[in-house]
Amino acid sequence: MAAPHTTPSLPNSQLLLKRTPPRMPATVVLLQMCHNFQEVRQIHAQFIVSGLLSRPPNAGRLLDSYVSMSQIYYALMVFDRMPSPDEFAYNAMIRGLMGYSPYDSLLLYNKLLLGGLTPDTYTYTFVLKACSRLEAIKEGKQLHCQVIKAGVAPDSHVHTTLINMYAKSGNLDSAEGVLAECSQENVLAINSMISGYMNQGHVEKARAMFEKMGVGDAATWSGMITGYTKNGMHAEALALFQEMTMFSGSVVSANESALVSSLSAAASLGALDQGRWIHEYICRVGAKIGVTLGTALVDMYAKCGSIDCSYELFRKMQERDVVTWGVMMTGFAMHGEARKCFQLFDEMVAGGTRPNEVIFVAVLSACSHAGYVELGHRYFNQMVHDFGIRPSVEHYGCMVDLLGRASRLAEAEELIRSMPEDPTPIIWGALLSACRIHKDLRRGRWAFRNLMQLEPFHGDRYMLAGQMFSNAGEKEEADNITRFIKENELETTRGTSFIEIDGVVHEFVVGNTDHHRAKEIYSMWDGIN
């Protein structure tokens, strides 16, 4: 719609009136034709000049257009100046506030009721989503009662949202009760229940429901694949994705959520061959590679060790957001290419993308692994003073790790003591790890005492302290800690590694010889030695 020059031109109103169906006001059609915020503002100005803003349904449709453009401030400005907003205006405003301030959505719903208006299914759906985001189960139950009194049909979107709301709050019994009211053919409701089970860790229940419903739709498969990934079952996620692709695309095809989750699973396993296969599938089916999917591909290649492919894809992306930049910087930091991480940071800032907390975690991690102490201080100060970002536990943890690796433990101690909040196990763990390396028993004991208070039965912390005492020649204290771990049966994390051969991911755990080809592996190892 926009003309080549700077100010977009609007269609001729007289011509538009001739083309407009009798029941569709020309002003509404104009708003529907807008593609960006500036065009909506231009029509807003025309409404004011011509006096059309006070005529129904112009204000409500204008408000809805601002909400669709995520311009909540302008939407509120229009809403607050409406003398008597109708249900459509309330619904649009509740929907807009839902993503920014869900509590205000609930207040606006209450105002709708006090004004004598009757909520419809859209109203209930938006307000229930606000309850879900707030995990306001009490208010959600009250709304459920109102839905029942209003006689809303069980197979509506309202009931799907009710299932989501109950499941997110952990009230699976109530979610199952709502599902029982719906017909067995209601795929949306079943999908919501599957996602609810997955989000609460009830993987077997989700799988049983998935198997029972047959093929399902794209959202069904996506919910299962995403659920497996969230529950750390990455191999199962990849197996299900491959099973889905066997339907030849005629029955069900992967949506963006399924593709992103599958790439995340491949990244977590370091399964480069499977990640490449998913990439080839994306190209073969002609899926649009937008910001989210492109970022997932960049992340997968970086975590699977192919940093060059990751960077090549990053450069080819026509549009990037701050998450994309963060993923690429983290990738360079992981691969020890700190200088490239810093160059990317400068390029991002110069291009007008404002860094967030995650960006600085990546940059500070790169400084830590490369040993750039002074540069780390500079970025930390830049984050606080230039970008107004309040340091989080992760940022302080990076700085303690940076100073600890550089054997500047006195500065690390000073930084911890200057923290505005009480240090967390992340901070104390970073200090203890540095003290183990540099055999600093005084500060190591200080860190260990604090860790015992915060995590009295965390086996890994005791093991780290035992290693520190052993390295420093304090055999008796090291033996005492080993004995304590055994007597209290504390769990410790064992080292794990993955290797992919011919598309199959093999997992190896320290101390475990259960691999089905263990004899061949040890025989080969003996031959090498």
Kindly describe this structure.
This protein is mainly alpha-helical. The chain has 30 helices and two strands. The chain has a two-stranded antiparallel sheet. Strand 1 and strand 2 (504-509) form a beta hairpin. The longest helix is centred in the N-terminal third of the chain and has 14 residues, at 37-50. The chain is globular and about 85 Å long. It starts with 12 loop residues before the first helix and ends with a helix. The relative contact order is 0.03. Mean pLDDT is 88; it is low at 1-22.
Descriptive terms for the model:
disordered N terminus, 30 helices, 529 residues, mainly alpha
Fold topology:
Elements: H1 13-19, H2 26-32, H3 37-50, H4 58-68, H5 72-80, H6 87-98, H7 102-114, H8 121-134, H9 137-150, H10 157-168, H11 172-181, H12 187-199, H13 203-212, H14 218-230, H15 234-245, H16 256-269, H17 272-285, H18 291-303, H19 307-316, H20 322-334, H21 338-350, H22 357-370, H23 373-385, H24 393-405, H25 409-417, H26 425-438, H27 441-454, H28 459-471, H29 475-487, E1 496-501, E2 504-509, H30 518-528
Antiparallel strand pairs: 1-2
Helix pairs in contact: 2-4, 3-4, 4-5, 4-6, 5-6, 6-7, 6-8, 7-8, 8-9, 8-10, 9-10, 10-11, 10-12, 11-12, 12-13, 12-14, 13-14, 14-15, 14-16, 15-16, 16-17, 16-18, 18-19, 18-20, 19-20, 20-21, 20-22, 21-22, 22-23, 22-24, 23-24, 24-25, 24-26, 25-26, 26-27, 26-28, 27-28, 28-29
The low-confidence parts are: 1-22
Over all CA atoms, what is the radius of gyration?
A: 29 Å
Tally of strands: 2
Structural class call reads mainly alpha
Tell me what portion of residues adopts beta-strand conformation.
under 5%
User: Into which percent range does the helicity of residues fall?
Assistant: 55-70%
User: DSSP helix count?
Assistant: 30
Shape: globular
* Strands ordered across the widest β-sheet: 1-2
Measure the end-to-end span. Answer: 72 Å
Q: Provide the residue-averaged pLDDT.
A: 88
Biggest beta sheet summary? 2 strands, antiparallel
